[in-house]
Amino acid sequence: MVLGAALAILPLGVASSARAGTASAGREVFAFFTAGGSDYMLQSADYSTLTTVAFIGVDALADGTLETSRDGVVTTQWAAWTSDWMNEVITKAHAGGCKVVLTVKRFAWSAADRALTTELLSSADARANLAVEIADAVIARGVDGVNLDFEPIPTAVKDDFVTFVRLLRQELDERQAGLFLTFDATAHIANYRIAELTAEGAADAVFVMGYPFKSSGSKKTGANSPLDGVKYGLPETVDAYLARTSADKVILGLPYYGYEWSTETKLLHSSTRPIGPTYGYPNSRPIGSAISSPTICTAVGNACPARIARDMRSSASGICFSNARIRRFRWRARRNQGTIASRKAPRQEKISGRASSRGTRKPIEARTTVLATSCATVRVVPEVLT
Question: Taking the domain 8-261+298-314, which CATH number applies?
């Protein structure tokens, strides 16, 4: 899960399970928040719009325990999960008809972490213990379920992950009926056995991470979450998941952050510069603080699900990031059309996501990056499904 900024998502179908709960309009608006998001969650979050908020999160250890402390000191994540301000978030969310779930993380992007994930999932005892600890944490907190952020799944334990999800489902059901169980999966399905993971007796839904198709280490600039212009983008991702499960089991995640790179040229899809003292990876970075629209999160790492959720209701909503230090462009999403327009601006431009501007039309792939400018359109689901 990349947390360059808060993440908001839309479903591909109307949830049929009773556990989907509060989405009376047949829509799930699911957002993540971190330990640093307390002020927003308490003061600004619109729980009448959101249907689920997930606290991300607490790590799962190889022995099947949740990491509540490290070297004898309570972790920041566990302290936040058990805090007084979390009590208030839960109360506010429930009052607005919004579910609260705990995200349990287990990353395997490095060789060392893959070994730990394999150790956890390959052990029947560790799987059973983790299912019990997660169920205990959910019931003790009085929340509505759990989100599993296990990414990626090592090949050797792809079947074991299915076994674990089914075991967790059973453990949750034994404690309380109707608890919401979801798991996160990468855009490229890889080792996620989606059909089995979303079958009866397993997870209620999969949260599809429709990002990042580009990263700070990419050789060329491009869309973080492309609608077109690539062989495998969001439409292909959706098709791949719908080939394995039903639409009511799929939640499409969209990023509210972009990347800025140092580039070799000023052209679209330019090559990025190699590593140097002030440019190139790892100095390329995700950016979220450049967003200035009042309906979009303005602080990297802080949760702003309600503003995002409101923005997602509009069929023409979109966001753009601009970096005035290199070159300034204005990007405007054209309503319900597969093009956007751009023009060079003489001064730094603020963000706009609705009205189209005059200028040369570019194909939809231009919603990617021109130097440091990234654009992502949030109204993906209806365009893909219709």
Answer: 3.20.20.80
